[in-house]
Amino acid sequence: MTFNQSVTSVFSKFVTFSGRASRSEFWYFALFELFVYVVLSLFGWLFSGPDGNIPGFVSVLGSLFGLITVLPGLAVSVRRMHDIGKGGGWIFISLVPLIGQIWFIILAATKGEPYPNRFGTIPD
Length: 124
Description:
mainly alpha; 4 helices; about 0% strand
């Protein structure tokens, strides 16, 4: 799955928590979110005043982007866990400081099951 296909797929399955998501779909969406936040941070840095305050429009854009991507991000994370044969509740492991976040990254990077599982068929 390409970068554009993955971002389009995640937004088209906005609140679809069933099924499976491939590694490329999950990681390309994570890369998309990182890219947007880096661009917003650069805007904040470029347009900040002499006192270092970030302009309001950058904060508003960051908040709006976060609100727009929270549900698709959760949904693709749950579908990613489904791809490796785990229930969606495993995303909550990332709430454990440091160790849980590292464990979630390992789970998300794990190759999916190469056969249909209880969550659906093999993702594209």
